[in-house]
Design goal:
With 351 residues, this protein is of the alpha/beta class. The chain is 31% helix and 19% strand. Bound molecules: threonylcarbamoyladenylate and magnesium ion.
């Protein structure tokens, strides 16, 4: 299959081209597209065959459910049963936006899309290309992140092409995404809403709107959830992993720099190529290896936006071992560290 790479203006996408992409989706094809979080791999959510194609293209286990993307509130009710008032309040503030909500599903949602679960995940992305494409496709696009299963999620169209060229019909290039981490997932199927995946909209912001929220214990357990099964099936898989072994070094800034320099020197002596994930403030202090600057310590926006592309860049560099600083920033720190810890297989070194 030849994959068409279509460049569109992210703010004002050409409607004629959007209609053409929408037609591919209506006819059962697959189109990758930008959202504000990461690139998604879209197929018609109400067509079981399209969902099967998504799993095949990603190499993803078919018991891992897909998120249905909608563009208009009226499209929520035909797919979701029992939408609580709290969810409407959250949608009022954050839709379109980087939040996914889980509801009991209606029969129209194929089991292939929901991974066999009685529930459905729904999100209204905040991106002009995504919204226009959803409408052009008939209202419902199932879209996981547009990476090969296990690799870091794509934040640029080039990443999608790296993973899926030749496997899908079209990739729409709308430039680099704004957020860089996948949406916050909130489960509304029990009495108290529960965070299944941390994201840009953090626990505090959710509490302000919902009053009470819980967080799935499996995603905050220090041992990498070996003893708990996360409620979002996808959170259980090895994910975001670069090819090299990654370890996170924690402690105060000076100790971390010293420790990483020591570890990097030792690795270099053993003939290994070392990658280091550093910040604007620390990058110049490293004396060894490929140093990649992820952004400023004071900007979790930059760190989140660059995390996945830095991990992919190290694959291109062909390094053997990566050391990263920790990024426990106040706002998005939980989401950033959740992804980084998974990428590191929970390998943490105290400086
Ligand atoms: O930001 C995002 O959410 C991106 C963009 C493309 O919208 N999408 C995304 O999809 O991250 P994906 O498939 O890579 O991750 C979806 C996660 C998986 O961990 C999956 O197990 C979980 O959502 N999920 C989907 N439906 C669910 C359900 N009914 N119950 C619990 N977890 C669910
Ligand atoms: Mg994913």
């Amino acid at each position: 299959m030849v994959t068409e790479l279509l460049h569109l203006d992210a703010a004002h996408p050409d409607q004629h081209e959007i209609d053409r992409a929408g037609r591919i989706l209506r006819e059962g094809g697959l189109v990758a597209f930008p959202t504000e979080t990461v690139y998604g791999l879209g197929g018609n959510a109400l067509d079981p065959e399209a969902s099967k194609k998504i799993y095949a293209a990603k190499g993803r286990p078919s018991d891992n459910p897909l998120i249905i993307h909608i563009a208009d509130m009226e499209h929520l009710y035909p797919i979701a049963a029992e939408v609580p008032e709290a969810a409407i309040r959250l949608a009022d503030v954050w839709w379109p936006g980087p939040v996914t909500m889980i509801f009991r599903k209606k029969a129209i949602v194929p089991d292939e899309t929901s991974g066999g679960l009685p529930t459905v995940a729904v999100r209204m992305p905040n991106h002009p290309i995504a919204l226009a494409l959803i409408r052009a496709a008939g209202g419902y696009i199932a879209a996981p992140s547009a990476n090969t299963s296990g690799r870091p999620s794509p934040t640029r169209a080039e990443h999608v092409m790296e993973d899926l060229d030749g496997r899908i019909d079209m990739v729409i290039d709308g430039g680099e995404v704004r957020i860089g981490l996948e949406s916050t997932i909130v489960d509304f199927t029990e009495d108290v809403p529960c965070i299944l995946r941390p994201g840009y909209v953090n626990e505090q912001k959710l509490c302000e709107i919902l009053g009470e929220v819980t967080i799935d214990p499996a995603i905050v357990s220090a041992d990498g959830m070996h003893d708990r099964k996360p409620r979002a099936p996808g959170m259980a898989y090895r994910h975001y992993a670069p090819k090299a072994k990654l370890s996170i070094v924690t402690g105060d800034m000076e100790s971390v720099i010293n420790k990483i320099n020591e570890l990097a020197r030792r690795a270099a002596l053993e003939g290994k190529t070392v990658g280091i994930i550093a910040t604007d403030e620390t990058a110049a202090h490293y004396t060894e290896g490929h140093v990649r600057d992820i952004g400023s310590i004071d900007s979790d926006k930059e760190i989140a936006q660059h995390l996945f592309s830095v991990l992919r860049d190290f694959d291109d560099d062909g390094v053997d071992i990566i050391y990263s600083e920790a990024f426990d920033t106040p706002r998005m720190g939980q989401a950033i560290m959740n992804r980084l810890l998974k990428a590191a297989g929970h390998s943490v070194i105290e400086a």
